[in-house]
Specification:
- The complex is a heterodimer.
- Chain A is built from nine helices and twelve strands.
- By secondary structure, chain A is of the alpha/beta class.
- Chain A has a domain of 173 residues: Rossmann fold, CATH 3.40.50.
- In chain A, the strands form three sheets. A six-stranded mixed sheet of chain A has the order 6-9-10-3-11-12, sandwiched between helices.
- In chain A, helix 3 runs parallel beside helix 6.
- Chain B is of the alpha/beta class.
- Chain B has one domain.
- Helices cover 21% and strands 38% of the residues of chain B.
- In chain B, the strands form two sheets. Chain B has a ten-stranded mixed sheet with strand order 2-1-5-8-10-12-14-16-18-20, covered by helices on one side.
- In chain B, helix 1 packs antiparallel against helix 2 and helix 2 runs antiparallel to helix 5.
- The chains are: A alpha/beta, B alpha/beta.
- The interface between A and B is medium-sized, with 29 and 23 residues.
């Protein structure tokens, strides 16, 4: 469903992604691991369409469409979801209103009718249970004053509401205690289907105990330098990223 | 004839016609003040960014005789605010109070002319409070209003009573045949332990120039609660100088929310004078401007007694070529220990050509106080915009949502559910940027 070929991108003349190749098929979970500064978050941002980054080469196709030609909101309409590493605080906008708008704009993009109030509330209730979130949190200003764990749970709640075909989880585990990781991972696992793909970006192997990947890739210095199965994650955890660096030398 | 000569002629006619008026000497003093100071120019520190003297080069018609007005009640219909069926309405047309177009539903509320009030049992209140705002405005424009006090109203809220219907005040300027200069004037007396909710609006009819120079003075007695919502959504051919002077005579609560959505030029002077210990004043404002409009909010919070609390929050969203001014003065007199005074002004500029001048001004003479102020001028947060767009929300909708979120905490200061919904709908409509 997602095909990345020789993707190069950077910011202000500095190349960060130096030729990424990656294919994700429906039903697959891929993990991208790598040390700080290797380009993991840049890859996530470029896929979601963040304008700060300039794509200088290569291609990304999603279900046959040229993803790089689409605006961020169109990518979401096509079924791409980015769980932000640092979800933004939005004063004066409740999660409920935010989701109502997002769900309906995506439906509009897909040529579907707006969801009526009853169906929307039903859907909300169902997805709230999934990530153990309560109504009071959804009525508050989006992410404002939320703890790290609450923000990440809210991201997974949004993912559940929007039912993406491809979910990109950008360091969803960073800064979370083990209970929060379990809740978040549990939410993600319930959303796994044979039709959708998941790309987990993480620094640590820990999250992958809960979201078991089919493939693990190591990103280093803007390139995928090693790919394997979940065993690769354990190896990285044990030996550290230095063993990759040493192998490359 | 230049405008000043015209005013002088009109002034003399008025004084001639009302020889036994109790307001004569007040008017005399004010006209002298006006002659000495003139219309403020941008050289005047308080008018540095707001130019009104140009308007006085134009030929304005200035009604001093009520009979000159031809106005039918039906003509007011399109401008009535939601909920008017259940509200008291006080209507000023071209600066004059019109009893026949006004509707009084609450017996706790008394509306009489200032002249009458100056002669009856309210004379001491008129004596004490009419013209008090001049202490805070040493400029000709305030004096000019006072010099022509004629059909101004005295609004009295009985002590111990809660006015059961809101009070809607319409400042109508009928500029359908000629430029109009209007000077509405009111003195509101909120009696001890009384409560009232006032909503005022400005309406210009017709395409000629309208200039409204309004002065409302409000005296709030012990344990009284005042809610005042000023809604400014006037036409591009309007100029408004609106002075609201709230004098908290006793320990009381005053909430004033000023919403400026459109209009050619708007200058608001809001004074909160806290003359008793333990007063509370909440001042909030939202200005949303586009095109070539100009909005200026000058506020004064004067802590004259200890233990008073004031919260001030003004927010602006400026688009097009619009310009904005915020000037927030906080005085803490030497005696006013334990003052808590907070002030925030935040602005978002949506266009390269929009501008805001913001200036907090704190003068603190007491040593045991908590005062804070902060102002920001910035653009829409790009990170936030991307976050919303990444969830499938279009650029235009995302911008509207963020701006509405920015404005929301001011809207939430509007206590009345009906008014809040009405204002929210106006704000939402003007934030549709797509």
């Amino acid at each position: 469903m997602l095909s990345i070929k020789d993707l190069r991108a950077g910011i202000e003349d500095r190349e960060i992604l130096k030729g990424i190749n990656l294919n994700i098929k429906p039903g697959e979970v891929h993990a991208i691991m790598g040390p700080n500064g290797s380009g993991k978050s840049t890859l996530a941002s470029v896929l979601a369409g963040k304008e700060d980054y300039e794509v200088t080469g290569g291609s990304v196709t999603f279900e046959g469409k040229d993803l790089l030609e689409l605006a961020p909101e169109e990518r979401a309409g096509e079924g791409i979801f980015l769980s932000f590493q640092y979800p933004v605080e939005i004063p004066g906008l409740s999660t409920t209103n935010f989701m109502k708008t997002a769900v309906n704009e995506i439906r509009k993009y897909r040529g579907q009718d707006e969801l009526d109030a009853v169906s929307f509330l039903k859907k909300m209730k169902e997805k709230m249970a999934l990530v153990e979130i309560d109504q009071s949190m959804l009525s508050r200003s989006l992410n404002e004053g939320f703890s790290g764990g609450e923000k990440k749970r809210n991201e997974i709640f949004q993912m559940a509401m929007l039912e993406p075909k491809l979910a990109i989880l950008d360091e969803t585990d960073s800064g979370l205690d083990i209970d929060a990781i379990r809740i978040v991972a549990n939410g993600v696992n319930k959303l796994r289907t044979p039709e959708n793909g998941i790309l987990v970006i993480t620094h640590y192997q820990r999250l992958l105990d809960y979201i078991i990947p089919d493939f693990v890739h190591v990103l280093y210095n803007g390139r995928i330098v090693k790919s394997g199965t979940k065993e690769l994650a354990y190896e990285l955890e044990e030996r550290g990223y230095d063993f990759i660096k040493n192998e490359l030398v | 004839m230049d405008t000043i000569t015209y005013f002088k002629e009109r002034f003399e006619q008025l004084q001639e016609a009302q020889l036994d008026s109790r307001l004569r000497s007040l008017r005399d003093d004010a006209f002298n003040e006006f002659e000495q100071t003139g219309i403020p120019t941008v050289k005047h520190e308080e008018w540095k960014y707001t130019r009104i003297n140009d308007f006085f080069g134009k030929d304005y018609h200035f009604t001093t005789d009520l009979k000159e007005l031809q106005f039918r009640a039906a003509e007011l219909q399109p401008f009535l605010l939601p909920g008017h069926e259940d509200a008291n309405s006080i209507v000023f047309i071209n600066g004059h109070y019109h009893a026949e177009h006004s509707v009084l539903r609450s017996e706790e509320l008394e509306v009489i002319s200032l002249e009458t009030a100056a002669h009856n049992q309210y004379a001491p209140v008129v004596e004490a409070h009419l013209g008090h705002s001049a202490d805070y405005h040493r400029d000709g424009i305030n004096a000019l209003n006072t010099a022509f006090i004629q059909e101004g109203v005295f609004i009295h809220i009985q002590k111990g009573k809660t006015v059961n219907h809101p009070v809607y005040i319409y400042n109508v300027t009928d500029a359908r045949s000629g430029n109009i200069f209007a000077q509405p004037r009111a003195l509101v007396h909120v009696g001890e332990n009384a409560q009232v909710e006032i909503l005022e609006t400005f309406v210009t009819m017709g395409a000629d120039e309208s200039f409204t120079n309004q002065v409302f003075e409000i005296a709030v007695e012990e344990d009284a609660v005042l809610h005042l919502y000023k809604i400014q959504n006037d036409a591009a051919n309007s100029t408004i100088v609106s002075t609201t002077h709230v004098h908290q005579v006793g320990k009381s609560v005053a909430n004033v929310v000023t919403i400026s959505l459109s209009g050619g030029l708007v200058r608001n002077n809001l004074n909160m004078v806290m003359s008793a210990p333990y007063c509370e004043a909440n001042l909030s404002g939202l200005y949303l401007q586009n095109g070539h409009t100009h909005v200026d909010n000058h506020t004064v919070v004067d802590n004259r007694q200890p233990n008073c609390l004031s919260n001030e929050l003004y927010k602006g969203i400026m688009n097009g070529h619009s310009t904005g001014v915020f000037n927030g003065k906080i005085f803490v007199r030497q005696i006013a220990q334990k003052t808590n005074a907070y002030q925030t002004n935040k602005n978002i500029l949506l266009s390269e050509n929009a501008a805001v001048n913001t200036k907090p001004q704190l003068e603190i003479f007491a040593d045991d106080v908590k005062c804070s102020h902060g102002c920001t001028v910035g653009r829409l947060d790009e990170e936030a915009l991307f976050y919303l767009k990444a969830r499938g929300i279009s650029d235009a909708t995302a911008r509207s949502l963020l701006l509405h979120g920015f404005a929301l905490d001011v809207l939430e200061k509007i206590g009345s559910e009906d008014v809040r919904q009405y204002v929210n709908a106006l704000v939402t409509a003007s934030l549709k940027l797509g």
